[in-house]
Amino acid sequence: MTLELRLIRSFVCLSEELNFSRAAERLHIAQPALSRQIMALEATLGVQLLHRTKRKVELTAAGTAFRNRCCRLLLDVMEAEHEARRVAAGQEGALAISFINSSTYGMLPPILNAFRTRFPRVELKLFEMTISEQIQALRVGEVDIGLLRPPISDNALMSRPIGTQQFIVALPRSHPYAQVGRISLSALKNDPFVVFERQQSSLFYSRINAMCEAAGFVPMVSQKATQIHTVVGLVGAGMGVSIVPDVAKNLQLPTVSFAQIEDNPAGVDVCLAWRKDSTLPTLPAFAEIAATAGREYLAGS
After folding, report:
1. Between the CA of residue 110 and those of 45, 76, 100, 116, what are the distances in Å?
2. Does pTM top 0.85 for this prediction?
3. Residues 209 and 238 reside in one and the same domain
4. DSSP letter string over 163-195?
5. Would the pLDDT of 89 be above 90?
6. DSSP state of 144
């Protein structure tokens, strides 16, 4: 047995009007055509849905039960149509987002807030990962888009830069240069350094070592760490000074001061990355909003 939505819609309209002439007018069809549709529906179901007389039309008990179910069915169909259009337009669905740890106290909150404001129906699934973990997760489709740092050497992925973070110096509040606001790296050549682990933070490790070498010294390592917040915490504990991205200022540790670097080293980029073959409708809107919100955050920080 196959029930056509066209027949169901005609029956529901007639059940509301209980008048073939008015129902046919609403449906923009001829009255005889409506009568044939109702008879075809009753024949398909094998039950009588209506009592018809010359003076009135009434629903049978079966017709009343069928009408109630049909009303719910048509509402579900209408919502399914709307949902399909919203998903196709990127206004609904789900999006799996990976991010580096430091973005949680940097640009990630304004990006998420801007996207949720525009697209409240999209479910966001968030995953904190290292850069290498993100690249692998993007490659195999575990996440849809990532917030990370370049370079991204994977031909399956494409990226979009959204801004640059500058490097600054983190110093214990007790340090002689804690209040100067601006400092040359060479002034720290005799200080112990808290540095980033080479294996897990290779980008920071290589860039910071290159800065120190350009300033004429090799940093004396007192402690090593992987995450920015750990490095800053160790600085606050008096374990040494460090060079960190300026997002570290957002940690606002009372035992740490920050200073600009007179040497003006190049900053470190932040980007979005996703699979080149992705057809996810929600992705382009997120990428555009994230790029805008990310740039605005960096400009105001």
Report:
1. 56, 35, 15, 10
2. no
3. yes
4. EEEPEEEEEETTSTTTTSSEE-GGGGTTSEEEE
5. no
6. S
